[in-house]
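Postdoc handover notes: sequence design on the structure in folder B. Input tokens:
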């Protein structure tokens, strides 16, 4: 049992002894979650100034919350609330051991997430189970090409998880593409953890040198930060290309710093398994009401057992749905479908809803598509106008793109052919060209919202 003392309360987070819940029956899962949820709620309500104020404002008494279903009566937490992070702290500074920074919704001041030693141990347990789900074992050599510095949470979580699983971990971090490839060869990496576009660049680098990544011995690609599948659970072209390039299985893992939990695919690879011991996952409609399994809505997560800055009903802004069908891996937990987009990037086009990353996602990896980005404008009548700026061979026309988009997203926006340089300069203009931004929202009052394809990089 992992424990942390907070204001004199011995508080424990759910650990290894709860891992069996992955295979438990619905009643057992519900009973364990109820216990963990009520403990989390009372700890948070007792120690967090933010939630004490919020509950008072909304007339909520935590003592009246008795069951898991009562969670719908609790107010939602949004990213903008985290600006005043000190009010969320449930422990003194002497119990904080790690500071994480995430991007803010507005302005340049990042959001601070403070972690206790218990929170770090919780992250390690979370990733240990997630890696194990993909078939990674202590026999594996894990190349982690996600930043471990700059106060990012993802890299340290993957590192701690790999160590806890007793794998051989290579902390290559955000090193250059050439150094990543050399490390893969030198140390015999059998699994890579990173964003798909980076894994693609490493493979391309090897191919350009006349070497073959398919023969490198990499068996698993753990894809972070970017989706690998479309809503129909089919691999996106880039993910398919990666599998061919590396002769490896690609696994999707969905996470964010605030929710401090990974939803990772198992070897059946049909959605990320929920982690009932680590969080309560809800899917809500625009009115904030829960939707049935299979219906898309916003992912709202209550990460259980966090002791530094616990959150209740955090709105992720990501759109997905839950799958409640038996998984062939034997686990009984529900799964989360691929994230189809960000709520604030939803576009309405001729009566159809579409997300910009769905459009780019079905073109990336296609050899005929070099690079591109989407711009959204608002028409006079308030509807959305979508322009796909594509760096393609102009002599071959745009009809093939229209066919792909008609088949995959049922929406064909305006298509503008741009030069490769123009596309590259637009897409890689931020953060010393490390970040790839493929969506520019120019609708009224929405200029600040850009797609960040590399949030975990
Ligand atoms: Zn499964």
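Designed sequence:
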């Amino acid at each position: 049992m992992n424990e942390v003392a907070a204001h004199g309360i011995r508080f424990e987070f759910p650990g290894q002894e709860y891992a069996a819940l992955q295979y438990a029956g619905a009643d057992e899962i519900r009973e364990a979650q109820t216990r963990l949820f009520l403990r989390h709620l009372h700890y948070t309500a007792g120690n967090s100034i933010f939630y004490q104020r919020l509950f008072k404002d909304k007339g909520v008494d935590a003592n009246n919350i008795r069951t898991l279903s009562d969670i719908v009566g609790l107010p939602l937490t949004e990213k903008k609330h985290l600006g005043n992070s000190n009010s969320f702290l449930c422990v003194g500074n002497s119990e904080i051991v790690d500071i994480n920074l995430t991007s803010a919704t507005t302005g340049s001041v990042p959001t601070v997430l403070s972690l206790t030693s218990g929170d770090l141990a919780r992250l390690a347990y979370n990733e240990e189970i997630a890696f194990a789900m993909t078939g990674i074992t202590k026999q594996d050599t894990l190349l982690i090409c996600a930043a471990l510095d700059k106060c990012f949470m993802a890299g340290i979580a993957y590192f701690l998880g790999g160590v806890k699983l007793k794998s051989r971990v290579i902390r290559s971090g955000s090193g250059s593409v050439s150094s990543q490839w050399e490390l893969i060869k030198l140390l015999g990496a059998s699994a890579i953890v990173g964003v798909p576009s980076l894994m693609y660049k490493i493979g391309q680098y090897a191919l350009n040198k006349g070497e073959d990544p398919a023969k490198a011995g990499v068996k698993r690609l753990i894809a972070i930060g970017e989706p690998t599948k479309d809503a129909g659970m089919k691999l996106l072209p880039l993910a398919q290309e990666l599998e061919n390039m590396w002769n490896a299985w690609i696994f999707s893992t969905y996470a964010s710093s605030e929710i401090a939990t990974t939803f990772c695919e198992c070897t059946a690879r049909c959605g990320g398994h929920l982690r009932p011991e680590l969080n309560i996952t809800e899917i809500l409609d625009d009115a904030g009401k829960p939707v049935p399994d299979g219906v898309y809505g916003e992912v709202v997560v209550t990460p259980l057992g966090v002791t530094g800055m616990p959150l209740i009903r955090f709105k992720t802004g990501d759109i997905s749905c839950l799958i409640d069908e038996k998984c062939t891996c034997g686990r009984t937990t529900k799964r989360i479908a691929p994230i189809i987009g960000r709520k604030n990037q939803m576009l309405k086009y001729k009566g159809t809803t579409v997300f910009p990353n769905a459009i780019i996602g079905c073109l990336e990896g296609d050899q005929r598509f070099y690079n591109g980005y989407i711009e959204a404008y608002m028409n006079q009548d308030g509807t959305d106008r979508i322009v796909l700026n594509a760096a393609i061979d102009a002599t071959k026309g745009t009809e093939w793109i229209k066919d792909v988009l008609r088949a995959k997203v049922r929406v064909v926006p305006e298509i503008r052919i741009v030069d490769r340089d123009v596309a590259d300069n637009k897409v890689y203009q931020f953060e010393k060209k490390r970040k790839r931004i493929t969506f520019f929202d120019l609708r009224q009052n929405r200029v600040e919202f850009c797609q960040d394809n590399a949030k975990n990089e």
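Context for whoever picks this up: The longest strand covers residues 369-378. Don't rerun without checking with the PI first.
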